[in-house]
UniProtKB/TrEMBL annotation:
Keyword hit for Transmembrane: yes
Record has Membrane as a keyword: yes
Regions crossing the membrane: 20-37
UniProt protein name: Uncharacterized protein
Keywords associated with the record: Membrane, Transmembrane, Transmembrane helix
InterPro entries documented for this protein: NAD(P)-bd_dom_sf
Source organism: Aspergillus caelatus
Amino acid sequence: MLTLLQVLRLAPHHMKSKQLPLGFIFLIASVSGYFGGTEVTAYVASNHGVVELS
């Protein structure tokens, strides 16, 4: 999750340095971000974090 936050913080600066007219950042998470599971709690928590950011 920390790496994702770092990328989201640095991406706009990178896109501005390339002088792109538009920029899009896509956040992708699996279905487990919405519907949890009991055996993979860390995976579900990180996916839910991505879902909540968007």
